[in-house]
Amino acid sequence: MQNDRKSSSNLASSTITSQAIGVFDSGVGGLTTVRKLVNMLPNERVIYFGDTARVPYGNKTAATVSAYTCECVEFLLEREVKVVIIACNTASALAMEAVQRISPVPVVGVITPAAEAALRSSRSGRIGIIGTRATVQSGAYQATIKNILEKQGLERDVEINVEINVEIIAEACPLFVPFAEEGWHYHPATRLVAEEYLAPLKIANIDTLILGCTHYPMLTDVIQDVLPNVRLINSGEEAVGVADAILHEQGIHAQERSLHRIVDCYISDKSTAFMSVAERFLGFPLGMAQEVRLKKW
Amino acid sequence: MQNDRKSSSNLASSTITSQAIGVFDSGVGGLTTVRKLVNMLPNERVIYFGDTARVPYGNKTAATVSAYTCECVEFLLEREVKVVIIACNTASALAMEAVQRISPVPVVGVITPAAEAALRSSRSGRIGIIGTRATVQSGAYQATIKNILEKQGLERDVEINVEINVEIIAEACPLFVPFAEEGWHYHPATRLVAEEYLAPLKIANIDTLILGCTHYPMLTDVIQDVLPNVRLINSGEEAVGVADAILHEQGIHAQERSLHRIVDCYISDKSTAFMSVAERFLGFPLGMAQEVRLKKW
FRET pair for A238, CA 20 to 30 Å: which of A182, B138, B142, B210? Predict the structure, then answer.
């Protein structure tokens, strides 16, 4: 009996290990998170859902963002993913609770992991945040950092270097998304735009900057050149790190490299430009991107 | 009996003259067309519908764009507009027939009026078109110009100056929309972007350029500086000209300046940034912008 249970548990665990990691984003940007995921956890398979028909989420109400995100995450859950990463900053800010209610598997957003990483990284306590106008105005990163500082050492084991006051400087960089999608990663115009957007952060003498938008890792070089001594936090990469820790805790890492395609990509609307932008963000050929019609579409 | 009919006809005509002009766009951009409309026809009232919840249309299928456009135009028709202007280039390219089927009043798109204006304007026959990637790739302007040339002098009375071969050079300028929305109408970065996008048109020595996107009139100064001897055709302004001619033909111009608000603005999703962008595009305070939930939303 004891043996039976053990072998059944082993079987279940072995089934789970081979399940994919689900990654959701409102559009194409989350593929920068998948890029990090594939680099960091090369044995894992990924099922990606990009809600390209309804992107951007940033200017939609919280109720709408929650409804849309849940619908997309349900699609991933039907495909039996073992963990869900919400790569979209807006969805992470507005829909985490709703998604956690419907998900039987762990759900990881980008905001808390990036906020924790920034607090671990910063020495001076002067932390910058850049994102879309909606993300910056939502105050989600600012509130999360404040929350972590208040609960410091209680709920989570965040090793915070900051001992002095934390000062947060947040700037919206709306033109970064179209520049990243256009592929002008280091055009002179991109540099001029970056200098203008990042000037207040330079003046504020930040030592750590959260890239609070899935697209921004594509502009890392130009951002780093404008802010040379600043540690850049890739929010998607930090979320992958937290997902990795969860897989480790639960012992459900994939044991060997999958023989299946590494990334199954589903999108709610396929534009002609999608594949080229997607593969640039991902860093390798995508293979397939299947259009899926959603119920609420 | 004769008199009765006449007075009844006068009454009906008088009711129609006081009805508004409906303007539809996929988002905020169509307000540049409303700006021209208010300048050119100051007595007319305008009911504007911007489908801000589902913008952009450019990456959606023809069936989706037609369904969305018809739904929005029905909203305008319920408010008894006397003519409908489709300010959106994508909707003009993909949904004109569908809208004309459901509309009891005349419907004016932007593509044919702008194509005719370009053919009237050009001396050399070297005509440029700029728009979103979707508009340029749709080939709608190119096909319409070809169509007008083939039917020259038959169906429509277009006085075409061009006697030699017409050559069309089309360029997508995807970053122009976010620059216009961001309000960077004449930033050094905008200038660099314009120089790069417009270089092939400069080399091709065009004498006429169709601004095939509602946002581009906001960047007229920088475009004109890069292409100093080129006549710029504002597609929204040309559509207003055609609507004006229809009102004239039917004798249904507003006879005096309305005492009501000039522009009633309805949108399907109201972002925090909407009002400031809208008023910049419109050139005067908007007063109100009411959010409307659509059935297919």
Answer: A182
3-state secondary structure of A16: helix
- Among B138, B70, B40, B103, which Cα is nearest to B295's? B70
Q: How far is A158 from chain B (nearest CA, A)?
A: 34
Nearest Cα neighbor of B142 from B89, B97, B218, B193 is: B89
Question: How far does the CA of residue B28 sit from the closest CA of chain A (Å)?
Answer: 13
Closest Cβ–Cβ partner in A60, A177, A192 for B189: A192
Calculate ∠ Cα B79-B270-A64, nearest 5°.
Answer: 110
B211-235 residue pLDDT tens? 999 999 999 999 999 999 999 999 9
At A2 the pLDDT is 41
Interface mutation vs chain B, best among A28, A175, A177, most B CBs within 10 Å: A175
**Where along chain A do its domains lie?**
2-109+238-291, 111-235
Mark whether B213 is an active-site residue: yes
Residue with token string 């990654």:
A23
CATH number, domain B2-109+238-291 = 3.40.50.1860
Confidence label for A83 from pLDDT (cuts 50, 70 and 90): very high
- Residue B158 is predicted with a pLDDT of 59
- Topology, domain B111-235: Rossmann fold (3.40.50)
The verdict on a CB contact (< 8 Å) between B175 and A178 is: yes
**Quick one: pLDDT band at residue A287, thresholds 50, 70, 90?**
confident
- Nearest residue on chain A to B293, alpha-carbon basis: A64
Please tell me the pTM assigned to this model. Answer: 0.88
